[in-house]
User: Fold this.
Amino acid sequence: MFTQKRISLALAGGLLALSTTGFAAVATVNGVAIPDSRMNAVIKQLTQRGQKDSPELRTRIKEKLIQEEILAQEAQKRGIDKSADYLSGMELAKQQLLVGALINDYMSKAQVSDADVKAEYDKMKASASGKVFKARHILVKDEAEANAILAELKKGKKFEDLAKSKSIDKTSATQGGELNGPQGDWVNPQLFVKEFADALAAMGKGQISKAPVKSQFGFHIIKVDDVRENKAPEFKDVKDQIKQQMQQQAVQKQIDELSKKAKVE
Assistant:
């Protein structure tokens, strides 16, 4: 069987290989030249992903290209390039390359102005207003059990220990009931169901909910470790990220439009 990884390697060699007539070669393996264009294609891919072009990087790529050429030649000797697995893999990889090239073309033509990016940032900044919390909770099935846990807390039992032993929310229980969101351990009440969100938003630093908070999941006991005003990142720090997201949204819109027009049976 010819694995997908090897198919990709062979494809990189097969599709990127050009006639070496008049072209510089990276190396020659058993009389077959590895064209400089293949090296340049790999360098372009890696630099687009954030790697820095350097002599060391080129040396590593050269070694890899030589190894791939050796393996590709051996595969051809064994007739693997004529096998059904290889040929179907080539068709699949060719389609993936075509799709990737089309997406890159869409991305390059998706024009997003600085004014549009700033407007999107202002929306995000407005939605980020309010307070965020470092909070924990213990979730149990019934109110009687929740009240019993509150009583234990009043006697000096540690919230974290009770969360680990009593909470049915196993994800947070292992962390002593700690809640997490997109900003790590700082959570926005808007992330949670209304009953929980309202109770959390009304609490201050160091407080434990005076009574169990009922939600669709059961009964919660909430503890607030810390609270602060939510701060949006500076525009300059997220400008490029927002622009890329907007470009991706524009590309997805084009993909959706193509999908609607396509006749699928």
